[in-house]
């Protein structure tokens, strides 16, 4: 049992129904809380972890970590962000002003620019209510209170009639404006501190987030030192002592500042989240309650929608893009085999035969006709484009031609990348097995080995390469996988110098007498392709239809050579 293995204290547990009851319940946007009165009456079942959920709901175990750094200048900016996280979009400035004890809000429940919040979530499962209409009369029904109150609503909505407005306001206050159709469960830690204490510089905020993220991910950083000159100079424990910390879920005995600083305690707290979970409300999917009203009384479909628009302040829609992407991914996985899925639905480019940049990465491209330089997204690049790269001999930026793509797949969703933030504000996003130049001698190493404090290189307005310190390395989810190969074997992506190559490491020959760099090994491996390029032959450049990796690279990866990185 988890309790015995991790020594989780067994306290009187809140009822299992209370844990999972938010999904399928009404939600009041004005108070940012679940509604007091139930819309549905449904049978309840328990999962293998003892969590009670509606019988018609789906319970999916997940392992996701999310981190947020929020600071809002006013209530309007907080409201806009909060509505987006609730999967609700307003086409006009809403009348809603949501205030609450959440990220970016102070202790008096007003958003503030003087306080910054770091929120870390460990998601253990997701509860999805699904399409309730399929389950009506099959264990799911509307409550008598809901049917009765829908029947009492006026058949038309007149915003100029105080009595009419009051009727709908009472209805929404009782049942909510929306229905919660999905939510995550697990635990969260929110660290709040004053802006003055963290420091006003972007670097200070990024460094604080980096250290706290490392701690939350279970790294032993209780002795980590911050950069001298920041307003919170000292170690992690010093920072935590000057912050307020709020916990959700997990063993209450472990809900203390010391847990954040010590990896063994953090590991125990995370393990306790399946025993003592909490519903996480930072991100949820909401559906307008008007659909449920229309099912009870179809004549009041437009009426309830008009009331929602007026009381909330404009047209609104549910953001369905994320759900559509999830459904599309699941459908592909059901229709095609595992081997094909690995090519078309890459989850981690390190596990595929190469490493890459996402679709959104930007490079500088020179127009071949007029010489003008413009920015171009990775997804728009073509073989023959001249992109900015680095001339090692002159130590300055030059333009180098793309001769081929090692990996190219624009339709791949939910790919895990690393985002490396530098002290000058530049950020590069790339996969963990991609090579990037670091240190005084511009040594090419795997991006996953880059640590805070190391030196990467950016290009300035005069096309000079300048060293910049790494402030943070975060895991992010992006779309697309692209790996262009240039004549010089490198390119400048998002204003940061990177290699064209991946999955290679330095190798020592002759018992240590000869050492060849990863960049040199990879560059040599592409000699045949450069020869074909010089001959101006075009047939070899393209990746065949239905494939995402160049055949030559696919062939090379079959050889388990000693210099290939795991």
Automatic annotation (TrEMBL):
CDD domains: Hint. GO terms for molecular function: calcium ion binding; patched binding. Keywords: Developmental protein, Signal. PROSITE patterns: INTEIN_N_TER, MACPF_2. The keyword Cell division does not apply. SMART domains: HintC (SM00305), HintN (SM00306). GO terms for cellular component: extracellular space. GO terms for biological process: cell fate specification; cell-cell signaling; intein-mediated protein splicing; protein autoprocessing; regulation of gene expression; smoothened signaling pathway; system development. It comes from the Eukaryota. Gene3D superfamilies: Hedgehog/Intein (Hint) domain (2.170.16.10). This is Sonic hedgehog.
